[in-house]
Design a protein that fits this description.
ATP binding, P-loop_NTPase, three-stranded antiparallel β-sheet, Rossmann fold, binds adenosine-5'-triphosphate, 33% helix, ATP-binding, ATP hydrolysis activity, globular, transport
Length: 233
């Protein structure tokens, strides 16, 4: 469903991604794990057509993101906060996103309900808490009922109840046959949720596969992470 093939990204003289290759499959939660600056956001931005690779390719359902006629019906994403203009209310923002992708207006109320923002529908995005902003971003991602979700650090800013809620939501999405790709540097969250792991360090994939296989031989995911990324615990 989501495939990254031999992606290289150079910024000036620096290579920030070096032949990154992996897949996120339907029915699975794939966690993209790596230390700060490893290249997670750079990879996801290329997958979502926000940046170009120097070489290699990233495909959503077999096509580059930019060639999808109604992208939000194929892949929903949250990269950086809610993505809403500060002065727009949650409802206005979602209505605008829905219109831009030919999504029926009734979906706005449905996703506000689904992410627990029905009571805050009229609040301006600039006044939402960090966690509520994350929920609004997720509401926009869910609008088009896409089979795939791509989320950069989805639990940032969420309280424990919010973390439990998003875990359940992502699990249910995958269990219903959807594809979930999320980036994280939080080990506990990933150990609870992921089926598959892709570990990146300094722009290279250093391990990929089912969670139990990647962590085999290590007492915990945290130990596996530090061993694979060359860090120290
Ligand atoms: N717009 C940019 N211009 C120049 N360098 C950049 C830019 N964006 C990212 N980088 C560099 O590319 C490398 C990878 O960054 P990236 O944000 O993809 O990492 P990350 O794994 O998402 O890290 P984090 O967990 O800190 O968000 C870093 O060295 C970063 O400094």
């Amino acid at each position: 469903m989501l495939s990254i093939d031999d992606v290289v990204k150079r910024r000036g003289a620096r290579e920030v991604l070096s032949g990154v290759t992996f897949r996120a499959e339907p029915g699975r939660v794939t966690a993209f794990l790596g230390p700060n600056g490893a290249g997670k956001s750079s990879t996801l931005r290329i997958l979502l057509g926000l940046d170009r690779p120097t070489s290699g390719r990233a495909l959503v359902d077999g096509r580059p993101y930019a060639s999808l006629p109604r992208p939000l019906r194929v892949v929903g994403s949250v990269l950086d906060g809610s993505g809403a203009h500060r002065s727009r209310s949650a409802r206005q923002h979602l209505a605008w996103v829905a219109r831009s992708n030919g999504i029926p207006r009734r979906r706005v109320g449905e996703v506000l309900e689904q992410v627990g923002l029905a009571d805050a529908a009229r609040v301006r995005a600039g006044r939402l808490s960090l966690g509520m902003g994350q929920r609004l971003g997720l509401a926009a991602a869910l609008l088009g009922e896409p089979p795939a979700l791509v989320l950069d650090e989805p639990v940032n800013g969420l309280d424990p109840e919010g973390i439990r809620w998003i875990r359940r939501l992502l699990r249910a999405h995958a269990d219903a046959g959807g594809t979930v790709l999320l980036s994280s540097h939080l080990m506990a969250e990933v150990a609870e949720l992921a089926d598959d792991l892709v570990v990146i360090a300094a722009g290279r994939v250093v391990a990929a596969g089912p969670l139990d296989r990647v962590t085999a031989g290590h007492p915990t995911l945290e130990d596996a992470f530090f061993a694979l990324t060359g860090g120290t615990s």
